[in-house]
Write a structure and sequence with these properties.
five-stranded mixed sheet; 11 helices; binds zinc ion; alpha/beta; six-stranded mixed sheet
C-alpha cells in the first residue's frame, strides 16, 4: 500500500505544482505524507456533501480540482463550511489534495478530458505555453572519442528528443590548429600546424542543463582545449496550455452540437445553452474546462467555429458572437471539469483503489425554461 507522499508524487509527476497560476493554492491541504492510502476519491469540489461521500466510502485520500482555501484564512474552526470540511476530514483520517490550474494546463489535462468527452479529435492547446528552452551544443572531436562524448553529454541531460535519448548528429570533417610551443596537444606537435580528421557532434540540450552539459563535454573530451559552440534554439509552443481545440468527426449544426454536449456531459440543472445561429455549421471546436470565456479570441484565431466553456457573461458573449463570428456554448462549470476526474484517477489506479464522485456540486440546483409571459 503506497504512502500518501508516493501518491502525491505520482500526481505531481503529471500535474507539477510549478505550473499552477501564482494566485492558486494547489497541493496537499491536510494529511500525513507517511500515512498509507488504500482508497482515493476524486471530486471537483471540496464541499461537505463530497466529504460525506468520502467518509461513507472509507477513503484515505480525497483529490479535488478546486482548492479549499484559495485566499488566506486565519481559522479552520468548525464554525464555517470550510472549517467543517477540515475538521471532518481530519477526524476521519482523510487527506485532501488539490490539482487545479496545474491540471488545467497539463498535457493531458482538464480540457483534454472535456474535449474527448465531446468526441473531439486532434486536440491541441488553445493558448499554448512556450516549450522548455533548448540549446544546440556542438563540439569537434576525433572519431575515437565520439562514443565517450555522447555518453557523457547525454548523461548530463543532452540529446533527448521526445521518447528518444542520446540523439546526436555526426558529420566528418577536418580540424586544423597550431599548438603553442608549451601546449600539450592530444594530436600533432607543439609549434606545428596540424590538420586532423574530426567529427562534428551536435546535440540538443535543455537550456537549464547548459552548465552541466558543457562540464561533461570538457571532461570527456580528449583535447586540452576543446572547441564547442552553444546556440540558443527558437522557443516554440509546448504541449501544455489553457483550453484545447479539436475537430468533430463530421460537421453538425450548433443546435445539434449543443444537444450532444448536453448528452455527453454529466447532468446538471443548468444544462447547456448556446449563443449564435442555431443553424450554423460547426466542426472545429474549442473547449475550456471551468471559466474560459476570455479565450474566445484565441478560439477564433485557432479557427474554431464554437467555444464550449462555462461562466459566460452577457456583454462578452454578445460581443464575441457579433465581432468574432464565433458561437459560444455555456455549460455548467462543474460539468466541464468532471470528465477530468476519471483521467486523474487512472494515474494512480495501479496502486490505489480509486472512485470518482458522482455527487453534483454545481451550485445551481434549479432551472425553469421560460414560457410565454412578461418580458
Ligand atoms: Zn473550476
Amino acid at each position: 500500500m503506497p504512502a500518501l507522499a508516493d501518491v502525491v508524487s505520482e500526481l505531481e509527476g503529471h500535474y507539477d505544482p510549478a505550473w499552477a497560476e501564482p494566485w492558486d493554492a494547489v497541493g496537499l491541504v491536510c494529511g500525513d505524507p507517511g500515512a498509507e492510502v488504500r482508497r482515493a476519491l476524486f471530486a471537483v469540489d471540496p464541499v461537505e456533501v463530497v466529504v460525506d461521500e468520502a467518509i461513507a466510502g472509507g477513503v484515505d485520500l480525497l483529490v479535488t480540482h478546486h482548492p479549499l482555501f484559495l485566499g488566506g484564512t486565519t481559522s479552520v474552526a468548525a464554525t464555517t463550511a470550510k472549517g467543517r470540511v477540515v475538521h471532518r476530514l481530519l477526524a476521519a483520517g482523510i487527506a485532501l489534495y488539490v490539482a487545479h490550474t496545474n491540471a488545467d494546463v497539463a498535457s493531458p489535462g482538464v480540457s483534454d478530458a472535456l474535449g474527448v468527452a465531446l468526441g473531439l479529435q486532434g486536440l491541441q492547446p488553445l493558448r499554448a505555453e512556450v516549450g522548455e528552452p533548448q540549446d544546440k551544443v556542438v563540439t569537434f572531436a576525433p572519431e575515437a572519442a565520439v562514443a565517450q562524448l555522447l555518453d557523457a553529454m547525454s548523461e548530463a541531460g543532452a540529446g533527448v528528443i521526445g521518447d528518444y535519448s542520446r540523439c546526436a548528429f555526426l558529420a566528418d570533417g577536418t580540424g586544423t590548429f597550431r599548438a603553442a610551443p608549451d601546449a600539450n596537444p592530444a594530436v600533432g606537435r607543439p609549434g606545428e600546424v596540424t590538420r586532423a580528421p574530426e567529427v562534428r557532434i551536435e546535440m540538443v540540450a535543455p537550456r537549464a542543463r547548459r552548465t552541466a552539459v558543457l562540464r561533461a563535454l570538457i571532461a570527456a573530451h580528449p583535447y586540452e582545449e576543446p572547441a564547442w559552440d552553444v546556440m540558443e534554439l527558437a522557443v516554440m509552443p509546448g504541449p501544455r496550455g489553457l483550453g484545447r481545440v479539436g475537430e468533430l468527426a463530421e460537421p453538425v449544426t450548433l443546435e445539434e452540437f449543443t444537444s450532444r454536449a448536453a448528452r455527453a456531459l454529466p447532468r446538471t440543472s443548468w444544462g447547456v445553452r448556446a449563443a449564435g445561429d442555431p443553424r450554423r455549421v460547426v466542426r472545429t471546436v474549442a473547449v475550456c474546462g471551468g471559466s474560459g470565456g476570455d479565450l474566445a479570441a484565441d478560439a477564433r484565431r485557432a479557427g474554431a467555429d464554437v467555444l464550449l466553456t462555462s461562466d459566460l457573461k452577457h456583454h462578452a458573449t454578445s460581443e464575441s458572437v457579433a465581432d468574432l463570428d464565433i458561437c459560444l456554448v455555456d455549460a455548467a462549470h462543474w460539468a466541464t471539469e468532471w470528465p477530468w476526474l476519471q483521467a486523474a484517477a487512472e494515474l494512480v489506479a495501479t496502486t490505489v483503489e480509486t472512485s470518482v464522485s458522482t455527487t453534483v456540486t454545481d451550485p445551481w440546483t434549479l432551472h425553469a425554461a421560460s414560457t410565454t409571459g412578461g418580458t
